[in-house]
Amino acid sequence: MNRGLKELIDRRAALGNFKSSTVQNLKRDRPMQIDALLGVIAELGTVINIDIAITRRVSLLHKGTN
Q: Number of structural domains, the chain?
């Protein structure tokens, strides 16, 4: 297994019975903060100069459904 992946899995396991706010919102039938999550991905993609066209499109599609 990739060392970075193993470290990520170990750090997640150390959190115990933690649930992200997105999961909590899903379980409570609340808005999922998708715009914020996609926005961060798009911003990081722009900063490191990678193509984020699909992420931008998904974001626009999501905004159109809300």
A: 1
